[in-house]
Amino acid sequence: MRINGPRPAPTPREETDERQKTYLLFGATGQTGKHFTSLALQDGHRVRALVRNPGKLAVDSPNLEVCQGSITEVPGLDGLIDGVDAVVCLLGDAQVQKKRKINTAFVRELVPAMRRHGVTRLLYQAGGLSAPPGQKLPPHLWALRHTVARGYIGQHEDNEAVMRYLADDAMDIEWMVHRAGIGSDGPSKGVLERSASRISMATFRDCASYDYQLLSDPAAVHTCDPSSYRKR
Q1: In contact, 217 and 194? CB cutoff 8 Å
Q2: Protein fold of 2-229
Q3: Where in the chain does DSSP place strands (E)?
Q4: What is the pLDDT of residue 65?
Q5: Which of 52, 162, 170, 203 has its CB surrounded by the most CB atoms within 10 Å?
């Protein structure tokens, strides 16, 4: 793990393995982000992570590049994006989002920077109680949002604003939104699949695995679907 140091020179594996990718990850120290980081590194890919507190990253790998900062104080967004294959946003700060749409403001800066560097693939994880553009939540999800999850209303509204921006102004970007139903940080409960109608309360580990696979799914481009566990 390196913090704000020079970027590594290509290794012999990089020169011969065209499948190696570099992921720019926002939210690497979060519950989903830490699992996503581990998955990508285990497969031999690179992860470039912007984090507020590098000490929270309990990972040590020559393929992990750590830059200190936050989405409200990004130290050189163009420099972060340069040379990456895909951008992954696993963001959420419910307290701040009660007052400001910080994710929306960030994505509005992120997408133009991606265009400048020819990076097209973007994954954004929203909550399952955030309604996709032009749609309403099913009654049972609407009820959950306004009762047990009412403390996260600002977060849902921020996610919805991000999705509207992507749908209205960023169709040239290969974005995909995972409206995740996250329940716990326990062990895996199975394999999540994209679903237009069903949503499962999943573990952080399973959501990370799903996000990781979703990035390689061309059918997921320009979708805002939830995920559900594969039926056995």
Answers
A1: yes
A2: Rossmann fold (3.40.50)
A3: 2-3, 22-26, 46-51, 64-68, 86-89, 121-127, 174-180, 182-184, 192-194, 202-203, 227-229
A4: 95
A5: 162
